[in-house]
Amino acid sequence: MHLDRRALLSTGAISAGLAVTAGAAAGPRSDATGVAVPSGLTISPDGRADHTAALQAAIDEAAARGVAVVLAPGVFRAGSLQLRAHSRLIGASRQSVLTFNGGATFLTAREVPGVRIESLTLDGNGLALDARHGTGLIALDGCEGLALVDLEIRRGLLNGVTLDRSSGRVTDCTIRDMSEAALLSRDATGLTVAHNSVADCANNGILIWRSAPGEDGSIVTANRIQRIGARSGGSGQNGNGINVFRAGGVVVSGNHVSECVYSAVRGNSASNIQMIGNTCRSIGEVALYAEFAFEGALIANNLVDGAASGIAVTNFNEGGRLAIVQGNLVRNLFRREAEPVDKRGVGISVEADAAVTGNVVESAPTAGIMAGWGPYLRDVAITSNLIRSAGVGILVSADPGAGATLISQNMISGARDGAIRAGDHGVPQGPDLASADARAAGRHVVSGNLAV
Question: Which of 93, 144, 199, 237 is the most exposed place for a label (fewest CB within 10 A)?
């Protein structure tokens, strides 16, 4: 069947540069497959031409007609490109490579709905962006219903993707070799980040941030994140697989996160955060962290293998409170002896209004579970946990200003420095509270535990 331009446009696709050589005649034409090529788009076989103007013209024409721009396999070099409302930029199974040729930005859009970018490889080419205009190879601001699907995004200075005040989904993408983060979302209005592969980013993996504390509701699920550095330093601002900052109601579930300098999942001032069913391996500081001013953290059914601390729910002094830590497997913790103060080696630590139940902790050189830090302890229940091969099994703050703790029905095996001990800022003191003659321990109720 003969395919003319009118028929092809009705199918919703404008194809840009399919097997076209330099110097082709101007005007509408068709390639060997019969797919119409917009006027003026010429691609040399070696991929060295600058296609900025031709691609922008194709984007504008396609948006006006309500059709997609389809890029064939090959290399397209371009500078700053502006996407329009309902722009669709579609490649051929990542064989269509859009390489940054320099400029203030790469792919940007502002206050437009329905942007879709699919099946492309975006190569930042190690070239700088102008942060005043966008901090990602893809930078979308105020875009509703966006879809970034099946992309490879690589070799970028700053972030791979930056989304501001946007909704939609980022799915099935590979993002690697970024000088900052793979993805930064700020002030999302309904975002799902799922089934992506993130690797070798200099400072962070996936960032879900808000400019002020508030409900966010983003879902970060089933991503694979590995080898995240902290090139810019700090004490936790960088080096995280997933970092949630000021964003409330975020669900982080089913991710596989490994080899991060600081945390696998770090919630900072992030109320009602859920960390569920994540696998965390080879983490340099706290694997799963809820810190600073937050109310509500559900940390359940995660696996941590190798970290300085498995799970930490802290900063009651800053308002951090209210948590459930349940059903987690935490093992192979280590102490950072080179650190002057923060050596860790703790399986699970909590401070205020928290239930720690049904967890298994093995090989925690400092303590299996630690409750409180100095006076920062209130209403903690530690029940039905199994702790094996720890320094101290359960370590609870003995500070006069500390609140009440219930420690009951736990099994503690092979604790070298005592099964249940009081402590001062992490340093054990006094008798083993698990023994029969030490059950009265002030505000701490210790009963029904088995120490072997």
Answer: 93
